[in-house]
């Protein structure tokens, strides 16, 4: 009887965990994806925190986009991959910008083609042990042909947060796998 009771308790625990997982994922999306992507109070030192929050949200979005467009592309499909990436990233950008306006803050996010080109010249993965082609840049999106497929490598953004106490701006290049690799802040 004890063994059967233990199995019943284990089964009940598994059912509870299975029910909680979707709720936790939904909560994480609300607090991190839209509402938590930009800090509530912006101005002065808080503008820097808002920039950091927006950058982290963009890092997650670029990482997710990299996985989503990783397979099924032909070699040298740079424009197609850049367009797919842009379409996927536009929803995150829109969410971050609208979350800012709901709090009385202006958040503006644009892709930066010149920062992407500069990063591609110096930071694009290459070397004698790699069989990668050169990087291509389209609309702030860096792509590269790897293993007979075109891969998303990085995306460059300008993020500006304007609040009642000031404005903060950052230009950031976010790699598809490792997150932010280059950043220039202005205040």
Topology:
Elements: H1 2-34, H2 45-68, H3 78-102, E1 106-111, H4 113-123, E2 135-138, E3 141-146, E4 149-163, E5 166-175, E6 179-186
Antiparallel strand pairs: 1-4, 2-3, 3-4, 4-5, 5-6
Pfam family, one: DUF7261
Keywords for this structure?
single chain, 187 residues, alpha+beta, six-stranded antiparallel beta sheet, 4 helices, 50% helix, flat, DUF7261
Provide an overview of this structure:
The chain is α+β, with helices and mostly antiparallel strands. It has one domain. The protein has helices at 2-34, 45-68, 78-102, 113-123; strands spanning 106-111, 135-138, 141-146, 149-163, 166-175, 179-186. Strands 1, 2, 3, 4, 5 and 6 form a six-stranded antiparallel sheet that branches. Helix 2 runs antiparallel to helix 3. The longest helix has 33 residues, at 2-34. It starts with a helix and ends with a strand.
Distance between the termini: 69 Å
Low-pLDDT parts are 26-43
**Amount of beta strand:** 25-35%
Task: Please state the average pLDDT score.
Answer: 75
Query: How many β strands by DSSP?
Result: 6
Helix content class: 40-55%
Major sheet: 6 strands, antiparallel
Q: Which structural class fits the helix and strand makeup?
A: alpha+beta
What is the count of helical runs? 4
Question: What form results from the Cα inertia axes?
Answer: flat
Cα gyration radius (Å) = 21 Å
Q: How many discrete structural domains?
A: 1
| Element-by-element helix/strand order | HHHEHEEEEE
């Amino acid at each position: 009887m004890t063994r059967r009771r233990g199995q019943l308790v284990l089964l009940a625990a598994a059912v509870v965990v299975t029910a909680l997982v979707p709720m936790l994922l939904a909560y994480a999306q609300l607090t991190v994806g839209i509402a938590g992507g930009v800090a509530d109070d912006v101005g002065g030192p808080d503008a820097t925190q808002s920039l950091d929050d927006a950058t982290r949200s963009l890092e997650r979005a670029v990482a997710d986009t990299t996985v989503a467009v990783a397979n099924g592309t032909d070699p040298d499909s740079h424009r197609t991959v850049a367009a797919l990436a842009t379409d996927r990233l536009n929803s995150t950008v829109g969410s971050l910008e609208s979350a800012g306006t709901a709090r009385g803050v202006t958040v503006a996010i644009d892709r930066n083609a010149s920062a992407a080109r500069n990063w591609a010249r110096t930071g694009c993965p290459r070397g004698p042990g790699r069989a990668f082609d050169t990087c291509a840049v389209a609309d702030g999106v860096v792509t590269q042909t790897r293993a007979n497929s075109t891969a998303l490598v990085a995306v460059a953004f300008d993020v500006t947060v304007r609040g009642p106490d000031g404005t903060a701006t950052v230009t950031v290049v976010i790699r598809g796998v490792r997150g932010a690799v280059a950043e220039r802040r202005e205040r």
